[in-house]
Amino acid sequence: MKFTDIKLAKLADTALGEIHKGLTHNFYDVKPVLLSEQEEVFAKTLEKVIQRKAPFSQLSSDALPENFEDKFREEITLAVELNGLLEKMPSRKVFVQLLESLIKLVAPISFIENKALFAEKVLHSSIGLKQLAFFSLEDDFEELMVNGLESVFVFHREYGVCKTNIVLDEKVFNNILQRIAFSIGTNFDYKNPLLDARLPDGSRVNATMKNVSPKGISLTIRKFSQVPMTMLDLIEKQTITSEAAAFLWMMTDGFAINAKNILVVGSTASGKTTMLNVLSNFIRLNERIVTIEDTLEVSLLDRENWIALEAKHTRGEEVMMDALLKNSLRMRPDRIVVGEVRGEEAVTLFTAMDNGHNGCLGTIHANSARDAMTKLREKPLAVPEAMLPLVDLVVVMQRKYSKDTGVSRKVSQIAEVTSMERKVLLANVFELNSNRLVKTDLPSQLLEDFAEQSSMTKNEVKKEIETRQIVLEWLLKKQIRKPQEVLEFIQSYYYDSEKVLSLIYGNDVEQTPTEQNDYQQV
């Protein structure tokens, strides 16, 4: 046995798998879906019928409900064909619809014990991720990493990197990759050995062909969360304190006239996009937002005045981020949100800031505020030194892992960007101290500028931040956590803060603004 394959104590046992401690990484042993012999035979038949590898006549049986063949053809196979799911991956919405239909169809069949489990297995094996279906079923998985047919890893939210017991069938694996490529209208072969795509559920996919990865075809999937996180989630996870969250809320909102330009920086998977998403949902509903991303990840819930633009790198179609950003300036945006600043679009973004587009938000790969300034100066970003102070704040995200606490993300630094004698200066407003984000004693130039530009005193600005901190802490205390409810509460505060505060301080603390009829008009 290899040193890296040694398993130690069992860490957890879930419905989907067992997790064991290892010397170099942990192990996730996926449990097989256990069906009876009769269930297994029937499942294989349904899979073949869906994939057009068996005729419908094989569904004729005395053990099946009357007209099962016709209903299966109408509700399952026809839907699969209309959506082209033998050639591409299904969206989450379509998959759920098919799953619900199949569960209803097999409900009267007595020999099927667990109808939902049976239906999931049939669909995942025929039109889903097949052998990799376990990844989509476990909410705690963040990334799937296939280094070869016998080398499949996952990143678990609590247990970090885990090697799985999955051994992939090469033909099945290739089919998955070709369907992913077809979903975005591109080829994945020796002439096109790099695949960068987005699954219909929003997950990001990267794959490499054998001619550029000699050890075998590789695949990486970063899961897209179906339920966006809110600032309350980040406070509860101790990613940020309520005090720092209230400060960022104030700076992002700016009373709708003095919003600050904010860059969120950090390493890969440090939580940059999550923080960007959270900050974006502090923007008022009456403001027009244009988001520009290489791969769609920002979720602004059900806002109506929002346009999402996505770069294209498919066969015969290439639309770069910079072109989309330049186009967005003609769309009368109140806010511009750039998913990740990587190249020449950086200068366009800073030019937009220079032309009066306040409240711009974006992310960049860097380990600190100082590193971010250095990266912005250098090619391919090449932002002129004189334009760097157009960014008001840099929020630094950090990802940590320990075997005791698992994976955690933290805001490690919130820095103000100013200038003096043409030199860029950084001043930490908040920084990590003993693993806790604390406010520093440095005077905030940003608060003084904010007060002056908003016709307020500095004490009034501080008081407003303290009030917003109270609002966030009250929401946490009352367990108001659904993203849409949080969004509506924040927006209610904008339009009638006195009514919101009377709710918080008054006797009627059992209802939220979204639950009270009088708040429907706020």
Describe this structure in words.
This protein has 522 residues and is an alpha/beta fold. It contains 16 helices and 20 strands. A 9-stranded mixed sheet has the order 1-2-3-6-5-4-9-8-7. Helix 13 crosses helix 14. The longest helix is centred in the last third of the chain and has 20 residues. The chain is globular, with a radius of gyration of 26 Å. The C terminus is likely disordered.
Task: Detail the topology: elements first, then pairings.
Layout: E1 7-13, E2 17-22, E3 26-30, H1 37-50, H2 68-82, H3 92-106, H4 115-127, H5 133-137, E4 141-148, E5 151-156, E6 160-164, H6 170-183, E7 194-198, E8 204-208, E9 218-222, H7 231-236, H8 242-253, E10 262-266, H9 272-280, E11 289-293, E12 306-310, E13 312-314, E14 317-319, H10 321-328, E15 335-338, H11 345-354, E16 361-365, H12 369-377, E17 393-402, E18 406-420, E19 423-433, E20 436-439, H13 445-453, H14 458-477, H15 483-495, H16 497-505
Helix pairs in contact: 1-4, 2-3, 3-4, 8-14, 10-11, 13-14, 15-16
Question: Nutshell version of this structure?
Answer:
The protein has 522 residues and is α/β, with parallel strands linked by helices. It contains 16 helices and 20 strands.
Per DSSP E runs of 2 or more residues, the count of β-strands stands at 20
Unreliable stretches covering 5 or more consecutive residues: 507-522
- What is the count of helical runs? 16
The largest β sheet comes out as:
9 strands, mixed
Helix share, percent: 25-40%
What class would the helix/strand composition place it in?
Answer: alpha/beta
Radius of gyration of CA atoms, rounded to a whole number: 26 Å
Distance between the termini: 66 Å
Global shape:
globular
Q: Which strand order spans the largest sheet, edge to edge or round the barrel?
A: 1-2-3-6-5-4-9-8-7
Q: Name the average pLDDT.
A: 88
Binned strand content? 15-25%
